[in-house]
Amino acid sequence: MTDSTPPESTGNGPTTRSPVQLTDGTDYDELLATHDLVLLEFVTSGCGICASMEPVLGVVARSAPGVVATVNAGHVPDLTAEFDVRSVPTLVVLRDGEAVARFDDGFQQADTLVDALETHAVQ
User: Fold this and answer.
1) CATH for 20-121, among 3.40.640.10, 3.20.20.140, 3.40.30.10, 3.65.10.10?
2) Domain coordinates of the chain in residue numbers?
3) What is the rounded distance in angstroms from the CA atom of residue 31 to the CA atom of residue 97?
4) Which residues contact 37 (CB under 8 A, 6 or more apart)?
5) What is the pLDDT of residues 14-25, one digit of tens each?
6) In this structure, are residues 100 and 94 in contact, taking their beta carbons and an 8 Å threshold?
7) How confident is the model over 51-109, as pLDDT tens digits?
8) What pLDDT, on the 0 to 100 scale, is given for residue 6?
9) Could you tell me the CA-to-CA distances from 95 to 41, 87, 99, 108 in Å, in that order?
């Protein structure tokens, strides 16, 4: 798992968190062991919509509860199959390891994803 995420801000100012890149199933297991709320994005190399989602995910990572993670669907086939990913980008909100929301219909706005994370953070 590659994570260039600096520590979160402890004050009221903005945080500088960024999405975590998962490289294998072990990374995914470690992520779930340390975070209750996760937005997981499945991407592929060369996916234009996936590339256009990168800045959106940066905004979500900095402004929403939980952690944002991306995984290349072609590199982690077991995880891709587990979530029945049929198109990219596919985004899944996980609460305590269970899928509670899914977006698999193309580009998503940051506010849509932040709202989904905030909704499931309070449950």
Assistant:
1) 3.40.30.10
2) 20-121
3) 10
4) 65, 66, 67, 93, 94, 95, 117, 120, 121
5) 455 899 999 999
6) yes
7) 999 999 999 999 999 999 999 999 999 999 999 999 999 999 999 999 999 999 999 99
8) 40
9) 14, 22, 6, 20
